Amino acid sequence: MGDEREFNLDEISIYGILKDLFRNIWVIILAALAGWFGVTGVCDLTYVPQYTAAATMAVSAKGENGNAYSSLTVASQMAEVFNEVFQSDILREKIAETMGVDAVDGEITSTVIQETNLLNLSVVSADPRQAYMILDAALDNYESVSGYLFSNAVLRIVEEPTVPYSPSNVQNTDRYRKLGAAAGAALVICAIGMMSVLRYTVKTRTGAKRNLEGRIRGTIPYEYKAHTLKGMLKKEKHSLLISSALVSTPFSEAVRKTSTRVEQHLKRRGQQVLLISSVAENEGKSSVAANLALALAEKGRKVVLLDMDLRKPALYKVFDRPKIREKMLSDYLQGNVGLEDILNYDRQTRLYRIFQDKAVSGAARLIESERFAQLIEECREKADYVIVDSSPMGVTSDVEILMKYVDSVLLVVRQDWSDIRAINDKVDVIGQCRKDFAGFVLNAFHQEMNLEDGTAAYYGYRGYRENHRGRWENERKRTGK
């Protein structure tokens, strides 16, 4: 495959995006807090309080005892002229002279109330006392300027000016904080969502078919280890084995369907020994190996399940076996015991198992030993199939050594876990070792919403459900259940 990547909408996993958001919820909260405090800081740094002192005046004529002009229209026109007076540079110079300053540090505004002879005069300044003083000086000096224009007109104060006690430009900081917090959280959510979408991993079955270089042998749905609320609260975990009554039907049916496809592949090529691995840790290869072995044993096949992950063995945990002192695989490889001493047979599942319960130093040396070659040959003679659980290919080189003794290799790919390029690189390694590649098992796939009919279904199980729905309905009618 080339370096260029084609982006397709059907490779987007809604569950994967939600999982990433949940895992990074603390980052989203921190981003919201950063937005909140960031906006608060900006507001505090940029906010300059402004104080407004105001007075209301009426235009009246001299010699008429303070009565308004007989014509309201003329009075309004006179008020308009006074408006210009209060905003003139001449008056500002008079005010500065009265206050003993070089320039007036404030904004003088006058507004005529429509269809009246009333005039609102206001002064805005950063200092409340200064705003009042500017307004008071304006009222004391306006006559010296307006006298040139109106010798028979005066202003009568209707509402006296007062010293302002609170800013007139109060900021809605609370609203800005909320917007900042929402913007910070939204940006991080978008970034996490984009990273989730663009992460080059297997998120859907369609994406696996398109991008992985090999056949998809089956898709196993995600199965919760705690099956009850009480178990979840106590963090109880049970092994996900199809021999257990606790696992769900979709899970067990998906495993059996996968085992049938894998067995058909092995039969067509006359193969017995199947190596199961993955690219990275925690992809569920040991559980898949155990369940495929159990599914084959259910059909009456004689199966040996061998734990060859000598660096981090896990099959004894999968089968819930406590660490007790009994003969293990390492004892055989070191030449201390025979095959019958380490071969564990379970009558209930009819499965032969060879366990290892602790890490072994010099694992590569033991795998390349004659004892291991002898073990594989003895297992071939004893069983129909030998399932070998190995260490991850991306972690150690043990798998490349093991491939000399096996017939085919099966890779387990967990949903949204390993990089697709790394997976395909390991497929190339299998080909370079001249080994048959059985394909992929997609593991731990969650439910996704089907956009066609709005229903949720497991990848790989929906088709089975649809194909067998009619048969299930007929069976229900026949049995009355």
Q: Can you summarize this structure?
A:
This protein has 481 residues and is of the alpha/beta class.
Key features of this structure:
8-stranded mixed β-sheet, single chain, 481 residues, alpha/beta
- Poorly predicted runs of 5 or more residues: 65-71, 450-455, 457-472
Distance between the termini: 52 Å
Radius of gyration: 42 Å
The protein's oligomeric status is single chain
- What characterizes the major β-sheet? 8 strands, mixed
Strand order of the largest sheet: 5-12-11-6-10-7-9-8
Large-scale geometry: rod-shaped
Which class do the helix and strand fractions yield?
alpha/beta
What share of residues is helical? 40-55%
Number of strands: 14
Per DSSP, the total helix count is 18
**Hey, roughly how much beta strand do the residues contain?**
15-25%
Average pLDDT, all residues: 85
Task: Walk me through this protein's architecture.
The chain is α/β, with parallel strands linked by helices. It contains 18 helices and 14 strands. It has helices at 14-23, 25-46, 72-86, 89-99, 128-146, 173-198, 205-211, 229-234, 249-269, 285-298, 315-318, 329-333, 339-342, 363-367, 370-382, 398-402, 420-432, 462-479; strands at 51-61, 107-112, 118-125, 153-159, 216-221, 273-278, 303-307, 344-346, 351-354, 385-389, 408-414, 436-445, 448-449, 456-457. The strands form three sheets. Strands 5-12-11-6-10-7-9-8 form an eight-stranded mixed sheet, sandwiched between helices. Strands 2-3-1-4 form a four-stranded antiparallel sheet. A two-stranded antiparallel sheet has the order 13-14. A hairpin with a 5-residue loop joins strand 2 (107-112) and strand 3 (118-125). Helix 1 (14-23) crosses helix 6 (173-198). The longest helix has 26 residues, at 173-198. The chain is rod-shaped. The protein starts with 13 loop residues before the first helix and ends with a helix.
